[in-house]
Amino acid sequence: MKRLSLIGSWKRLGVQVGLLAGVGIAFIGGSEPPPAAAAPVCTEEGQCTFVKPLFMIIADYSTSMNTMFDANQTRWEAAVSAIVAMVDADNGYLQGNVLLGLMRFGHDPAVGQMGTMIPDDSSGIVDGQKIDVGFYDEQDANKAYFHCNGEAIKTAIMSVPAPINGSMTGIGTWTKGAMDKAQAYIHQTWNDHPNDKAKRKGAIVLLTDGQWTDPSGTQSPGPANQNPSLTAGNLFTVDQVPTYVVAIGEAMGKMFADEIAMAGGTGTAYDAANPAQLIDALKMVVQAIINDVIQPICSPGLPRIMVLLDASSSMLNVNNGTLAGMQGMTGWDQARDALAGANSLFDQVVMGDQAVENLVHLGLAVFGYNMPAPGEQKLLVDYGPCRKDNFAWALDPASSCEAPGCTDPWGGPPITWTFKDGSMADPPGFDDQTLSHMPKCDGPNPNQAYCSGSGTSTHLGLQLIQQNITDYKAACVDPLFPYPCDANTTFINILVTDGAYDSTDAQVQMPLEAMFNGGVSTYVIGFGDVVNTPASQMKLAKMADWGSGGANDHFQADNQADLEAALATIIEQITFDPCCGFVNCANVPEPTTNEPDPLPQTTMTDSDSDSDTDTDTTGPVTATDTDSTTDATATDPTATDTNASATESTDGTATAGPTTDEPTTTVTPTEGGSDTDTPTTTNTTQTSEGNVTATAGDTEDATGGDTDSGGVPGTDEGGCGCKVDDAEGQTRGLLASLFTLGLAGFIRRRRRA
Question: Where are the bilayer-spanning segments (predicted)?
Fold first, then answer.
């Protein structure tokens, strides 16, 4: 998951939400704000954990908007199509979760007089502006907000004629008048709703196709006191309301447009050169709003769930711990599938049709033996959205299987695992640190058929996640944290273990009770080969009691189906915010989740080159163990636990014994040369100049270069307000904007760009 640097701060929304100004292309008419119509998705504000933000769209309604935008459409006609597409994007999510306002502007033909109208204009502009769709009903005694008013906006925009019915002259571009009107209206909204100012955010989006003028529309640019940047700066510094700018036509690439955006705290303006780019831009805007406006507000309400998985060697054994299990038969394989497979924790459906992975931030940790110090406990991946592919890779035996220590991850002892960091290896190339891990599968006795070496120091795993919660809470209260939290953020632990811990009761009890007293409940699921022993059952009951203040019993899971059912039951007990179900993890490229696990008896050719870029489905084959925190040097290579003797090499990897009858998956190294595995998918890489190149490892399509479909008449404007071509590497134009957004904006991409 890539952290987008702008998330969490209104002062830093510009790059992501700048395109929203394109919405301002909607030039709406009518005498009164239309009432809200039913939206495809509309949640009442009281059901949300956040207060819906205000978005005032300021649209240039000058007659230059009648200029052809391409061979088939004028700028106005393209605007109508684009605004309708924007409102409908993501099943109407935007209109259901923000308060939209629309305003058009032109010029004032009689400055100083009230109620003047533009000759031949029938759209209702008075004194230079018109609010076509407001935030609320000014005539209502309760000043009720217009929730979910996107349908009214669509109806209005499609009913308004082009400026002066297509004339090329007659309406000017008094931009400051519009900015002043918007500021006054936002203040009026706050004053009419006195409890809102401290919590209801505001933002302005401005679309313009030309240089700003004086109030009469005759002087371009107007005098210095008519520079709209003055109002944009005041809105930003005093009211904390940013202004985003989209430039089309003669405004494209000009410094005056950038000046407004910079004063408004949002960087530079964004250019849209043709109708297709404008439609695409506004669809991206919906995602940008979700990412960088709603998501930071929603973020504290998203539950954080940490899964703590028993990584003792018994998880690799079957037949009451006497035999190393074959692929798919071990508790480890089944737990991995329940956590990240086809019917996993991530896929549970809540609120009618929402997958859990869209509504929570999940993390994963493991624990094993306490030797070598400090122990085998490890945070594999921290809290974040859409972690399913991270979980699957981290727990995949193939991810940690590298010759010569391992040639068959299900072959039984001895196996020496090579732990890796999936953010350093490509594939998979995760954006966040994701560490692989496996229980030890040592086999010190010649005839030993079961895996050993990793005990069950449960208290060390609990202490690890307890400290991680403390550290995370200290960091996430910062509003600039990728996913901010607050005092009301829910933290939950799910402990999956066979119950047979080597720790003392007091060692386990202390962190469980401390976390519960701090507001963090721990659900306990008994799962594994020895879960049904009386000793395990007693310990599971105690842990469930300590982790819930006596409120919960442990879940009994005798097989994978039971484990999946237990996870589903836990999820059903969590409260979710219906307004925050905006992330769709299914739309984010997943490097491993949709690929099958390696089949037995598959032989591949690999090289021992340092720059291995193997893309076969068994996972990365990287020679370096990058786990610097847990792959410690063994201080006691003969350290034992209560189950079996544990042997560890000096690089922290496990050594193990006999094989089973299970067919093997083999990676055969070759001498020299390059990796001969055939890449099965394609990934994209963005350069510092914004270009895109294709690399192996993902299934998404990538195209590079400029998608501008043609020139725009009249875009070369001389005199004041001109701007030289941007320096190499500077982010400009719609395409650069889209790249800045991460090409899909989502949620923070799971893979490095």
Answer: none
Which of 139, 105, 126, 125 is CA-nearest to residue 35?
A: 139
Mark 257-278 as b/e (b = at least 16 C-beta within 10 Å): bbbbbbbbbbbbbbbbbbbbbb
Sorted by sequence, the CB contacts under 8 Å of residue 719 that are 6+ apart come out as: none
What are the tens digits of pLDDT across the range 532-545? 889 999 999 999 99
Q: 211-264, pLDDT tens digit by residue?
A: 999 999 999 999 999 999 999 999 999 998 888 888 888 998 999 999 999 999
Highest mean pLDDT among 15-19, 145-149, 715-719: 145-149
Largest Cα–Cα separation, the chain = 100
Greater pLDDT, 475 or 34 = 475
Alpha carbon distance 359, 300 (integer Å): 12
Which H/E stretch holds residue 588?
A: none
The label of the residue with tokens 């054994």 reads 317
pTM: 0.63
Higher pLDDT, 92 or 322: 322
Output the pLDDT for position 35: 38
**What pLDDT score does 475 carry?**
96
Distance of CA 452 to the CA centre of its chain: 39
Interaxial angle between packed helices 75-97 and 275-289, expressed in degrees from 0 to 180 and rounded to the nearest 10: 10
Residue 18 carries which side chain, given as an amino acid letter?
G
Q: What is the dihedral of CA 394, 398, 401, 403, to 10 degrees?
A: -150
According to DSSP, the β-strands at 555-557 and 323-324 are unpaired
Rounded alpha-carbon distances, angstroms, from residue 601 to 226, 410, 662, 675: 75, 11, 9, 20
Say if residue 507 is exposed, middle or buried (CB neighbours under 10 Å; 0-12, 13-18, 19+).
middle
454's tokens: 């990793």
Token readout for 725 is: 């071509």
The three-state (H, E, C) secondary structure of 131-171, written as one string: EEECCECCCCCCCCECCCCHHHHHHHHHHCCCHHHHCCCCC
Summarised one tens digit per residue, pLDDT across range 154-195 is 888 888 899 999 999 999 999 999 999 999 999 999 999 988
Block residue for tokens 């720059």 = 611
316 and 644 Cβ atoms separated by less than 8 Å: no
Query: What's the rounded Cα separation, in Å, for the pair 159 and 28?
Result: 8
Half-sphere exposure of 686 (CA within 13 A, CB side): 18
pLDDT digits (tens, 9 = 90+) for 561-602: 999 999 999 999 988 887 777 677 877 655 543 344 343 333
d(CA 18, CA 261): 8
655 Rama sector, left if φ>0, alpha if ψ -120 to 50, beta otherwise = beta
Give Cβ neighbours of residue 423 (< 8 Å, ≥ 6 apart): 429, 430, 431, 432, 433, 434, 752
Structure tokens that stand for 200 in this block: 């209801």
Pairing of strands 129-133, 99-105: antiparallel
Residue 64 three-state SS: helix
Helices (H) and strands (E) in the chain, counts: 15, 20
Phi, psi dihedrals of residue 20, rounded to the nearest 5°: -60, -25
